[in-house]
Amino acid sequence: MRRAASVLTLGLGLAAGWAAAQPCDKPVYLTFDTGHMGVAPLVAQVLQRQGVKATFFLADERTLDGGGSLDEHWAPWWRARAAEGHAFGSHTWDHVVWRGDERGAFRMQPTAGEQAGQRLTMDEAAYCAELKKPAQRFEAMTGRKMLPLFRAPGGKTSPALLAAAQRCGFTHVGWAPAGFLGDELPSERYPNDRLLAQALRDIRPGDILLAHLGIWSRKDPWAPAVLEPLIEGLKQRGFCFATLREHPKYAALAAGR
């Protein structure tokens, strides 16, 4: 009886390993930008439960407890996500939003940090420092390196900004139109059930999906109602999940080639 049970256990293990090794021919790439971090613990639980790896873009944004999303309070959370095999990129340190180009510089507006809300002029070196600081902090927290990828806050860029980021060692990552999951939209006009149905209807293989770890303006949080049903619904439709390390556009960068 013990031998039969051992054989059964081995068989199940081999089957699970075989299933995990199957090629993913309908991948989607789930990404999260930082925010107030209010749903971060729930997001981590759902990803663990569903066996999904995601890519996180990090900025030091104001959190519900008055700290920052990259402060010591959150360091264990980031270490745990790194140990689980998720991927990470920069979202600029102070979540600086591009507002326009100037000769040799950029008009920027931070939404975090001591200068939040102010209009600033940043030269290329200052913007490069904004990109690098989350990577430096992430390595200090986790002992691991970020991918050479960044997402501009709001997705707002210009050719000059993207070229400056490239010279700094960072390639920009946006999202697919259908991958805009809507968690930053007003819940009175875009309720969670509508956002879920829209995503399940419109997402296509290869899409990069965008959500956040907390949005101040949304009254009915998206993640508790939508994240797990979305993952389950996409799996039922034959989709699978990968990080941007596996994305054909970014895999060589991630591998250092």
From TrEMBL:
Single GO MF annotation: hydrolase activity, acting on carbon-nitrogen (but not peptide) bonds
Pfam families linked: Polysacc_deac_1
Signal peptide segment: 1-21
Keywords from the UniProt entry: Signal
Occurrences of domain NodB homology (ranges): 26-242
Coiled-coil segments: none
An example Gene Ontology biological process: carbohydrate metabolic process
InterPro entries linked: Glyco_hydro/deAcase_b/a-brl, NODB_dom, Polysacc_deacetylase_ArnD
CDD domains, alphabetized: CE4_NodB_like_6s_7s
Annotated protein name in UniProt: Polysaccharide deacetylase family protein
Source organism of the structure: Azohydromonas caseinilytica
